[in-house]
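Subject: Interface between my chains keeps coming out wrong

I've been trying for a while to get a sensible model of this assembly. When I model each chain on its own everything looks fine, but I need the whole thing in one frame so I can look at the contacts. Pasting all components below, labels as-is. Any help appreciated, I'm running out of ideas.
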Amino acid sequence: MTMIFGVPLQALMGQLLVGLINGSFYALLSLGLAIIFGLLRVINFAHGAQYMLGAFAALLLLTVGGVNYWFALILAPLIVGLFAAVIERTMLSRLYKLDPLYGLLFTFGLALAIEGTFRYFYGASGKPYAPPPQLTGAVNLGFMFLPVYRGWVVIASLAVCIASWVLIEKTKLGAYLRAATENPVLVQAFGVNVPLLLTLTYALGAGLAAFAGVLAAPVYQVSPLMGSNLIIIVFAVVVVGGMGSILGAIVTGYLLGVVEGLTKVFYPEASNIVIFVIMAIVLILRPAGLFGKEA
Amino acid sequence: MHKILLTTAVMAVPAMAEVSDGKVKIGILNDQSGVYADFGGKNSVEAAKMAIEDFGGKVLDAPIELVSADHQNKPDIASNIARQWYDTDQVDTIMDLTTSSVGLAVQALSLDKKKITINTGAATTDLTGKACTPYGFHWAYDTHMLAVGTGGALVKEGGDSWFFLTADYAFGYSLEEQTSNVVKEHGGTVVGTVRHPLATTDFSSFLLQAQSSGAKVIGLANAGLDTQNAIKQAAEFGITAGGQKLAALLFSIAEVHGLGVEAAQGLTLTESFYWNRNPESAAFGKRFFERTGAMPNMVHAGTYSAVTQYLKAVQAAGTDETEAVAKKLHEMPVDDVFAQGGKVGPNGRLIKDAYLMEVKAPADVKEDWDYYKVLATIPGDQAFLDPAKSGCPLVK
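Reply #2:
Try treating it as a single job with all components included. I did that and got this:
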């Protein structure tokens, strides 16, 4: 058997794939964060809570409404997006004129309130969500046993990441969005409804988080804590990728997922800090992040 | 004449004066928001309330008060709260203390402050081993009980090679080490181990390592949400279907409920309490359920017992002074819904029976929370270390 640093090649291949799966979640979540920060200049600390809301929306749709996974995949992001739009319109939009710190504090408080509410009703353990029957089982790839569902996670998240990138970088709506962040007053003068654009952006970002939440529901226990366990890592991903850089968030998400996966093989104890070590190094060498524009 | 009157007056005062600050104040300090919030959490506080109400709300004519706080599984936060409780809030004793690192920190602090702790939530045997104190008690369970119960049972069934998935802190090490010892004593081998950080969401890397090790049993030396996620993901990667058995070394009915019997069925686990074991425990369980919406696990029932026993000890000692109450706690037998014929060792360990359980298949579950089949009763002297061999310096 071929060995690399004392680890069998087969095991290494398996870990690379697992890293890619986790990277899919990081990419989806950091993409939403990057879009919101890039366009609204809000550091959305409620992102983890919105991810958790997505998973719970799927769970409630199933248990209360009998709505299956595939419809939940579309409905849950819409519900969470709508909720986010209401929050943005009624509360967050009032903070745009103030120091960005207020937005951060507000979303942080919001996250605590949402998580606390769900913890009250569901406890820390939460509830299980079964994977859709079409995607159960696993395929033997020779070097590892790949659960079909995890394969689907990689494909679905890649597709959504690419679609979001195209939407923002290649379409007219995206062009408006980007223009509105550069100079909102000028864009408004051209007759574009900038506040509406910002609401849509926040809803889109939250919807992406909810989408990741639905994807995660069959893999992880649906628990009020699922978001807060992940959010800090996702912030690190965004910082490494470059604040507000959409492509950076996607690429770094997958990259750091793989790095973390490899750390779990070579030195498992460090697996929860390796991302932050990388963040520190990147901040020293390239303060704007790997894909960020030097301001 | 005057002299006699005066003496009588002085002698009449003590009953009240012997209770410091005119009240007995119990603190419940545990994780109320993190991975162990269901294991102990706010339901443990409710169990303490129940115990106080059942006791009548008063001891030696002094009112009994209860305070609680969330230590977030951080020893520094826990120590700060404990210090404040002792120094300014007149708290007489602290209980629950989930998480071994917290339990050890607060027990050491309480020795300095000369206060009693009765730990129901933490697992490490160090509490009544090398770190034992004259005022520290360990009530509900410990890593030795879990290792002997679950580890011993599985090796006897033929699970003689083990791979450990261990939470990377004091509790995980302690549980892994003791289970390894039990496995080896029964002629089994440990083929590997991997340590994961507390509150890991994705276990797939670790599970793949466990899978490729070829071990017959994968021992989960972790707890709470970590164990739930590991079990769920093990099913996903075909580990259980592939013939490897999972041993959830610390898993209580609260986590079984959260995970669902569908995923948890067939798991072997050890608890020192099961609500549906006999009519008394069922009656207690149902009363607890009416208040909390959940059946009690061994931590909740243990906290109920600890509070009750502490109050009985205060009553028997006629004071809430630490030295006297600790003496009574060491001497008095423990007989309540949680422990029958329980006794406390000189190292502070409550010695009582534990139960080896199997999670039923969904079809066999007759009512909600009716999850366990009791496979065996493990007598107290087997479940817990002999105090003389515990390594506690107080035991000569």
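Reply #3:
Confirming on my end. The longest strand of chain B covers residues 62-70.
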